[in-house]
Amino acid sequence: MISEYLIGIVLLIAGSFFQEFAYFRKSVISLSSTRDCSTSRATLLLIFTIGLSLEITSLALIPLSTYILFGCAHLICFKLNLISDENRNHSSAEYTGTALMTLGLIVEYMFGARQEEIVDIDEFNNIINGSYFLWMCGSLTLNLTMRRLGFYQGKVLLETSIPAQIAAFGYGGLKICMYSIEMYISGYEFSIYLFIFSVFVITISLSSVSIFLWYYSKQYDLVVVLGGYYLWLICYALPLGVLVVSGGVHYDFKTLCSLTVSTSLVTLGGILHTYYRMEYLQNFKMNKDVVPPPKPSGALKKEQSEDTENIELTIEDENLMDSEIVDEDSLINNIKNI
Question: Any stretches that span the bilayer, and where are they (predicted)?
């Protein structure tokens, strides 16, 4: 029998693929006047909604920490669509980055922690850690203030830390909603106010993240934006999934070692993808701005002599036309005299 853990992983990867396919077609192809997109916006919205539903469902079957790590499937799927559209092969850095990410996900799947049912009401009530969320709110305020003062201006890898930190609240609230639904189905009492508050946090945070990413995608390359966002998401959301929102998940030495190795591999793969894209764009810009080298002196002299001959021919043609005009005038005068 297929385990719920495997089903959750499959749902997450499938959901990531559908979302990034629809997002790529909409943002890169359908918005370009020079490209033809055969898929309508309604169809893209339907595909994206199906992918989002699959991904949200997977969170009920796997731990939040695993969910965050397997979120790198978004970057991999988007990059596959981009490379296919650019009609080129993977570079060595992209191959290595994808291989490291895949290896990290395999390690987490084989040795990572599993999501179990919450059997103790106290375990659910202890999910909310006020000190952690106070630190999150304080650091987010500091981030927004520094951006407002211009410290992050033009630094995309720093600016993407803001939506990643906001998204951590949303994913934490989403996992708490899954816990609440599980408690309700199991017949346990739970706080309806906590559920409503979590829904409110999810709506505000994920909407804000979408706006931030849309705004950054207008200023920077989308691959760099997604790569920076995902790397910061690991920094903010992974500790949240291990230390706070971890009901029904038991971490021991083996699972913590697995999580450490997986995080290292996935992070390194994301760095390779992101920095290769930045280097690729920089080289493309440099090649585009290159001034053509001066022509050899022989070729330059040849062009000058050709220009001189053209000028002389033009002058001769003008003189010939003037002489013809004079002859015509004299002929007209003779006719009048006669």
Answer: 6-24, 44-61, 95-112, 132-150, 193-215, 222-247, 253-276
305 in a structural domain: no
As for how many domains the chain has, the answer is 2
191-230 confidence digits (pLDDT tens): 788 888 889 989 999 899 989 888 888 888 888 888 889 9
Residue 83 forms part of a structural domain: yes
% helix / strand / coil in the chain, to the nearest 5?
80, 0, 20
Tokens read off for 147: 């951006």
Q: Where in the sequence is the domain holding 39, given as residue range(s)?
A: 1-110
180 and 239 in a single domain? The answer is yes
**pLDDT tens digits along 259-299:** 999 999 999 999 888 887 777 666 766 665 544 444 444 44
**Angle (nearest 5°) at CA 102 between 96 and 104:** 100
Distance of CA 244 to the CA centre of its chain: 27
Strand, coil or helix: 259: helix
Helices (H), 59-160: 64-69, 72-86, 92-111, 121-125, 130-148, 156-159
Query: In this structure, are 102 and 214 located in the same domain?
Result: no
Regarding whether 204 and 170 lie in a shared domain, the answer is: yes
Whether 97 contacts 269, CB under 8 Å: yes
Q: Is residue 20 part of a domain?
A: yes
Cβ contact 38:73 at 8 Å: no
* DSSP symbol at 246: -
